[in-house]
Amino acid sequence: MPAAMERCVVDDEVVVPQAGGFYGGWVTSRVVGPFKGEPGTWGW
Question: What's the pTM?
C-alpha cells in the first residue's frame, strides 16, 4: 500500500496511491483510469 509508505517508486517514477482508504493500488503514468475509490465509483 503506497499510501502507508513515505515514497514508492516503479521504474524511477514515484507512484500515486489509489484514491480512497480501502484500495491499495499503485497508479503510475502508464495506468489509465477510472479507478475504484475515486468520487462516483461507489457501487461498481
Answer: 0.61
